[in-house]
What does this fold into?
Amino acid sequence: MSVGEGDEDPIATLKGLSGDGEGVEILAILLDVLSTGFVEMEKGTPEAMYVWPYFAAKPLTSLTPPEKVDLFRLVTAGDFAGMQEFGTYNFYRVGITADGEWKFFVAGD
It folds into this structure.
């Protein structure tokens, strides 16, 4: 499940990802993800970008209690248990370059 470079119609893709078929659910998820804070990835390289949520770049076992609260604003306890089995955060992530170029909105590994 992703929206990124090369998508012919990102609006149609977002609507298709949304459980309501109109895009409202997926926009709510996007808003929630962007409200968590970001981490700068690949800092100092041409591939540098900001990624939301910040904990997508952290091992789940290292999350502090406040970081777990941020995570549980996005996922359920059951989702978290699945992520622990998988070994990493695997819900929606957003990547935007330092100059503001949208790179991806993806879920999964």
About this structure: The chain has a mean pLDDT of 89. Residues 86 and 101 are 30 Å apart (CA to CA). Strands lie at 2-4, 39-41, 49-52, 93-97, 102-106. Residues 2-106 form one domain.
